[in-house]
Amino acid sequence: MRLNLIKKTGVLFFCTTLLLSSGCTKFLEEKDPSNLSPDNFYTIPDHAEAAVAAIYADTRALWGGAGIFSSNWQLLEAPTGTSTTETAQNSDLNNLYSLSWDGNTGHIVNYWNGLYRVIANANLAIDKIPGITPMDEALKKRKLGEARFLRAWAYFYAVRLWGDIPLVTKPVFKETDENFFPARAPQEEVYKLIVEDLLAAEAAGLPWMDASGRASLAATKAQLARVYLTMAGQPLNKGAAYYKLAADRSKEVIDYANANPTVINLFPTYLDLHDVNKEDILEHLFEIQYQITVATNPMDNYYPNFKAVTVNGPGGTGSSVPTLSFYNSYEPGDLRAKNQEGFFYTSYYTNGNGAPFELGAPYVFKHFNIVANGTAGVKGTAQNNLDVPQIRYAEVLLIYAEAQNEVGGPTTEAYNAFKRIRDRAKLATPEMGTYNQSTFREAVWRERWHELCYEGITWFDMVRLRKVYNETTNGFDNFVGHINKSSNQPLQAKHLLMPLGVQEMLNNANLKVQNPGYPQ
Fold first, then answer.
1. What Cα–Cα distance (Å) separates residue 246 from each residue in 224, 238, 241, 406?
2. Is the distance from CB of 390 to CB of 287 less than 8 angstroms?
3. CA separation (Å) from 342 to 336, 364, 368, 457?
């Protein structure tokens, strides 16, 4: 059963008062007992529960609105070259597609603010929960584990986007606090904290899976594998030792899944991936939670422009649609490219449940909520409670295949993990002996592009690999100089990092130098 405390934390949001200074003007020399502060709030176990639930609520900021025909999540999709737009009516989004963003681009500013809000509330929980007495120690450890998982989750996004960033680990309330105007810390230090937080979460007594949507042991180990894989590549270049760590952590999840296939596994069909009744189970190791009474699913900008594919009729979206070149790069017979069965659809039903009609182009089906929008003969509910995937078991299999190959070439286990992804797509896979380390490496990368597309992962693959999939050659170009077919613009070295927000730098002189290639 869904745990409503996570889904509905918007209605109990207390964090604004906690993040402000606790000082106030005296009024008749009496203290208002309803005025919450960090000192009088963290007194009972329910307060720990509410504090951690509020951190989960803040994670939704990365997917929310960014002006007309635009959403924050497009920050990680538009620059990849795998999508384009049918509307082009949002200047910030147009700048992302044309690779001409800067420190005023709204998506970049929103990501920074949203991530540091998660970090601030996680810091508060991590600082205050230990002092709650009485509280069951096992429960306290789990709450702290969840808070540290979420802090690591936020810092991992931030360090990959901006490189050296402020590293704040304690609550900040007033201007005299040490980190009120924080300087940027080296990436190495940020990754050190991320690993420490995830190791603490791993030891916090979390269940292997949590159908309520909370962080789990499987999610934590998978996230550690992701972090180690990233640290092995650019820009830290830690190499073989960290590929081994990534392989080991992902293998732990795979071993558990093999022993418990009804708990962790691949879904049998791709439709299961966006089935609102199959959230937070089996393949979904971690998702961002959505519920219509608090916040509706933010992926509407994947709908085609002014075409009646939902119960609401024609909608003015279409600001993020797949490029034909990427759609056509799927192998013949790949189920992931099959209409309404895989990740795309080329036809649908009028107003969601009426007469079928051709769309004239492929659109992203991966986040399409059939229950909310409707399907053949079944009217949609218009209640889009679909969660947004963060970590899938499919990615764990591909992390293991890539990392194990880097350790010592394509082993049988690495090959089998890779083959499972292709088996579900109904693709024949060449025999293991036909691969060497180099050809297997690129084969796994191609599967990452085709399996994990439109999940906010591809851009980070481009940055850590310094490589970009070329849909025409089916090979990989160097990042710098690769021409995105969505805009016919080349990627530059400056695009490896996002710029810091202009206003943020004006407010905090300690941030000092802007990232290379952007106006200071």
1. 7, 12, 9, 10
2. yes
3. 4, 9, 11, 18
Residue 194 lies in a domain: no
- Listed residue (341, 336, 390, 337) closest to 370, CA to CA: 341
User: Residue 516 belongs to what domain range?
Assistant: 12-22+33-181+472-520
- Look at residue 114 and give its three-state secondary structure: helix
Q: How far is CA 421 from CA 258, 365, 389, 425, 514, in A?
A: 15, 18, 17, 7, 41
Q: What is the pLDDT of residues 205-256, one digit of tens each?
A: 999 999 999 999 999 999 999 999 999 999 999 999 999 999 999 999 999 9
The Cα 431–Cα 428 span in angstroms is: 9
Q: 71 pairs with which residues across the strands?
A: 65
Q: Which residues contact 43 (CB under 8 A, 6 or more apart)?
A: 132
**Torsion region of 369: left, alpha or beta (phi above 0 gives left; psi -120 to 50 gives alpha):** beta
Q: What would the pLDDT profile of 150-205 be if each residue is shown by its tens digit?
A: 999 999 999 999 999 999 999 988 887 778 999 999 999 999 999 999 999 999 99
Task: Flag whether 3 is in a domain.
Answer: no
* Integer Cα distance of 194 and 199 in angstroms: 9
How many whole angstroms separate alpha carbon 476 and alpha carbon 303? 29
Place of tokens 């869904």: 2
Q: How far is CA 508 from CA 16, 163, 170, 326, 512, in A?
A: 21, 17, 18, 41, 8
Structural domains counted in the chain: 3
Q: Of 38, 199, 216, 49, which is closest to residue 136 (Cα–Cα)?
A: 49
Is pTM beyond 0.85? Reply is: yes
Q: Find tokens 């894989």 and name the residue.
A: 229
Residue 502 lies in a domain: yes
What is the torsional sign of CA 501, 502, 505, 511?
positive
